[in-house]
Amino acid sequence: MKVKVPAEEDFKSAAHDERVTARLGLWLGICFGLCFVTGLLSHAIQHPPTWFYWPSRPVNLYRVTQGTHVISGVAAIPLLLAKLWSVYPKLFARPLAKSLVNLVERGSILLLSAAAFFELITGILNVAQNYAFPFFFPPVHYAVAWIAVGSILIHVAVKLPIVRRALKASTKGDERPGVLSRRGFLRSTGVVTGVAVVATAGATVPFLRRVSPLSWRTADLPVNRSALAAGMTRLDPGWRLKVITPGGTRQFSLDELNKLPQTTAELPIACVEGWSASATWTGVSIPDLLHAVGAAPGAEVRVESMERNSIYRVSVLPSPHTSDAKTLLALRLNGEVLNADHGYPCRIIAPSRPGVLQTKWVGTLEVLS
C-alpha cells in the first residue's frame, strides 16, 4: 500500500496562514531583539572593550536590563513554538529547493530553529543553575546568539515582501463556530505568553512575586555561591585587607575598616540569571577608601577575593563606580555584620553591576590607574 506524503496545500488550519505566521514572527523578533541587545550589554559589562562605558546610576539599571533579558527569553519560548507550528507545513513543500535563494532561505530556517532552541533551552537551564551541558555557558551562549541573529536577518531579508503583504492583510474572515480562527490562535498564543511571563517574572519584578509560582528565587536575598562551596567558612584570625597603590601598600584590620567613615545605601543584587533583590548595605565607600590610601576616586580598582576556585574571584571596578559614593566595601547587611555566605569579612557592592562582579570575601584591592 502506497502512503501519500502530504503536500503543503493539504494543511488548511488557520494557524498555518501567512498572516498568522507574519504576526508571530514580528512578536518573536521583538522578543529576540530585546534578548539579544540586553545580552550584549551584560556581556560587555563583564568583558568590557576599551570603548565601552557603563554608568553607575541609576542604581537599578542592570537590574532592569538583565531582567528584560531573561523575561524576553521566557516570552520567546511559547512564541517560537507557535511560530514553528504555523510554518511546519513548509517542511512538506516540494521540490526541496526551487532556487539558490530558496535553498539559502530553507537553510537559514534550519539554522535559525536550531540556534533559537539552543539559546532558549540553555538559557532556562542556566536560570535554574542546572548545568546539564558539557561546556562553559557564557561564551557558547554568546557565540550562538550571533548565529541566531544572523540567520534571523537572512530569513527576514528573503521573506520581507511576504511579511509586508501579510502584515497589511486583515486576520478577520475565517471565524466559524467550533473552529479556531486566525485571531483566536493569535490571542491564545498571546495569553500563553503572558502567563509564562507572569509566572516567572517575580524573580526580578518585586510586585509580581506573590503571583509568580515558577519564580526561581524566593529568598529575601539569595546567594548563588555559598561560603561552603567557596571554601570560605573559616577566616584567618590575622586577616588584613591589603590595598595596593602606585605609592605603596597599606593594610587594614576589620576594626580599622569599621573606624573609617561609614556609608549606608540601599542597593540591589542583580544576577545574570535574571533574579534581583534589594537590601541595605553599610560599609566604607570606595571613594573614601581611596582617599584614605592617598589615591584619587575615579581610578580603576582591581578586586581580588580570598576564594581560590572561582573564575570570578577577580573583578575590576571601572571609573564611574570608584567615583560613586554608593560603591561600597560592605561590612554589614541590613544592619547586621555580614555572614559568611554574603562575603564576611567584606565584599564589594556597587550600583548597576552584575552579581558575579560583586566580589565576596575580599582580600586585596589594587589601584590600577
From TrEMBL:
It holds the Pfam family Oxidored_molyb. It comes from Labedaea rhizosphaerae. PANTHER family: BLL0505 PROTEIN, PROTEIN-METHIONINE-SULFOXIDE REDUCTASE. This is Molybdopterin-dependent oxidoreductase-like protein. Gene3D superfamilies: Oxidoreductase, molybdopterin-binding domain (3.90.420.10). The keyword Transmembrane helix applies. Residues 238-368 form the Oxidoreductase molybdopterin-binding domain. The lineage of its organism: Bacteria, Bacillati, Actinomycetota, Actinomycetes, Pseudonocardiales. The chain crosses the membrane at residues 24-46, 66-88, 109-128, 140-163, 184-208. One of its GO terms (molecular function) is oxidoreductase activity. Keywords: Membrane, Transmembrane, Transmembrane helix.
